Known about the structure:
80% helix; globular; 10 helices; disordered N terminus; single chain; mainly alpha
Amino acid sequence: MFENMKREYELFGISFKAFKRYPVFMLPLFAAWLIIASVIIYMARYFVWDNYLVWQGLLVILAAVFVCSFFLILSCSVLLEFIQQNETGKSFNLFKSLGETLTKNLLHVLLLSLIWSIFWSLVTLVQALVLLAMSAKRTEDGRRDTTYSIGIGAGILLILNFVKETVRMFLFIFMPAFAWEDLSLGKTFKRGWSILKQRREEIEKGLGLTLGASLLVFVPPIIMIMIHIFSDFHFPSWAWVACLVYAGLAWSYTVYLELMFVAELYLWQMNWEYAVRKAEEVGAPAPAFYEVQRPSIIDDTPDLIFD
C-alpha cells in the first residue's frame, strides 16, 4: 500500500516537473478539451433534441462522440510529436507537429478515434443509465435503501471508469508506433500488441497509478455532483462553470499523465531493443529488460537517437 502511494507521489512529481519544464506539453490536450467542452455545452444547452427521432438522436450523439474522440487522439499525436522532437535533440515546433499528425498520422488517428468513440459511447450510455437509476432510488426509496443503492451505483461507476481508463491506455500504447516509428496501420497494431504482451506487468502498474491519480484530482467535482443529485442543495451557475473548468483541467491532466507514462514505457522498450541488438552484434548475452535504465522525458538525454 505504502509502495503504491510512493509511486503515485513520484508519478505526480515527474508529471509536474515535465509540465513545469515543458509547458508546451499541455497545449494540445488543453486545446482538445476546449473543443470537447464546446461540443458538450452545445449538445446540452442549444441542440434541439425534439426535432429528431430517437435513432436520429443516437446518431447525433455518436457523431459528437466521434468528434470529441478525434480531437483527443489528434492532440495526443501532437504531444507525441513534441516528445519526439525533444528526444531527438530538436526544438519544439507546433506547426511541424501538427503537420506530421495531419499527414502521415491521420489515417491512424481516424481509426483509433473510431474505435475509441464506439467504446466511449457505450460506456457513457451505461454510466448515464446508472446515474438515472441512482437518482430515481433517491426519490422513491427510504434513506436505508437509498444508501444501499448509492453504494451499488458508485461501485458500478468506478468499475466502468476503470474499464474506460484501461482501454484508453491500451490504445495509447499503439500511438508511438506510428508517431515515432512511422509504421503502417497493420504494423502499428502488431507492434502495439507485442508491447502489450511483453510489458503487461509494467502496464498494470502504470494503470493502477494513473487511475489512483485521476480519482484524486476528480474528487472535488465528484463531491459536487453527488451533493446535487442526492440532496436539495442547489449550486449557483458560477459554481457549475468553475466545476466545468476544473473538470476540464483535471481531465487534460489525467490524459497527459497516461500518455507520459506510455511514452516513457515505449522509450524504455525501444532502448532495451537497441541494447539487445548491440549485445548480439558483439556476441554478448542480451540484457534483461530491467537491466536497461528507464529513460526519462524530463532529463537532457535524447533517448530516441540510436547509433
